[in-house]
Structure formats: structure tokens, C-alpha cells
Amino acid sequence: MAYVSSNRTTTLGLFNRLAEIGKDIAEAWHAYRVYRQTLSELQALSVRELNDLGLNPSTLHSIALEAAYGKQG
């Protein structure tokens, strides 16, 4: 049986930790905006245009996820 424990210790002050949290929130917001914009633009295409690109309408969400977050969903 394996047991893994991870404790993160840091010597950053409160201001630095808050700045890191703000940076993480800004990055998450940016990725979400990329996802929404990509999905919106793909959904605006007709089925024929999607076929020309080799895309299926059922895969649009996973394509937008990959564009924003770098992973397939």
C-alpha cells in the first residue's frame, strides 16, 4: 500500500501570496475567455464549413477546451 503526502511550505509574505492568487485568477479568466471565444466562433460556422475543416459539430466543445487549456475533454 502506498501513501503520498504533499506539504507545500513557502516563505512568501501575505502580499506575495495574494499576488500569486490574483495572477492565478487572471490566468484562469483568460483561459475561460479563450474557451468561450473559440467555442463561439466554431459554433458560428455552418455544418458545411465545419466539414470543410474536417470537424464534426459534436467535437466543438473538446476542440475549444484543447485550445484554451491544452487538454482534451
Can you walk through the features of this model?
The chain is mainly alpha-helical and 73 residues long. 63% of the residues lie in helices and 0% in strands. Helix 1 (14-43) runs antiparallel to helix 3 (60-69). It is elongated and about 55 Å long.
Feature tags:
single chain; 73 residues; mainly alpha; elongated
Shape: elongated
Which stretches are poorly predicted, pLDDT < 50 over at least 5 residues?
A: none
Number of strands: 0
Q: Give me the number of helical elements.
A: 3
Query: In sequence order, what are the helices and strands, one letter per element?
Result: HHH
Backbone CA Rg: 19 Å
Helix content: 55-70%
Topology:
Layout: H1 14-43, H2 47-52, H3 60-69
In short:
The protein has 3 helices and no strands.
